[in-house]
Amino acid sequence: MLLKQLLLGVWIMCGHFAETVQKLKTLKPTMLIEALVPDFRGDASCVEKVAKSGLDVFAHNIETVEELQSSVRDHRANFKQSLDVLIKAKEYAPAGTLTKTSIMLGCGETPDQVVSTMEKVRAAGVDMMTFGQYMRPSKRHMPVSEYITPQAFEKYRLLGMEMGFRYVASGPMVRSSYKAGEFYIKSMIEKDRAASA
Predict the structure, then answer these.
(1) CATH at residue 136
(2) Mean pLDDT for the stretch of residues 44-56
(3) Secondary structure (DSSP) of 96-164
(4) Would you place residue 75 in the very low, low, confident or very high pLDDT band (cuts 50, 70, 90)?
(5) How many structural domains are present in the chain?
(6) Domain range holding 91?
């Protein structure tokens, strides 16, 4: 019974995401919409529903490197499930829809783990990636293991661009919904639409 209720809750939630996007697009068709969504417990039909809703950017955060998933994220989330969500979103979404993910640094990851995670995310076809500094929200949360230097953030940004990400934002104050890339992303979407028309 509990599993049935959880699945119903996931379906209701993905329906809310899809319906919100559709209504916004009806009210203002030119509006660009990025939706930062959960993993929907890996439910492919939910990913499909949201990916086909008309959004422009499907965002789902993997949060940290693969090796630290169990110590950083909720036990119900994991790297493979998040990566599968991003792969399925790319598969289901109309051409020109971008996918995006983000990780926080300073959780105990090594540079090699960051690079390996970036390679896996890029191999999954993700278009954009952001990197920010983990900040401890309260004393009940995991402590910061390290403050990453601006130079290290810049190295990850440059490496991401070399790997083929279309956009990378990387810095201590960057968050998954980072604003600095909006105009660039907007022009990228418009360029893709013009090319496919």
Answers:
(1) 3.20.20.70
(2) 94
(3) T-EEEEEEEE-SS--HHHHHHHHHHHHHTT--EEEEEE----STTSPPP--PPPHHHHHHHHHHHHHHT
(4) confident
(5) 1
(6) 2-196
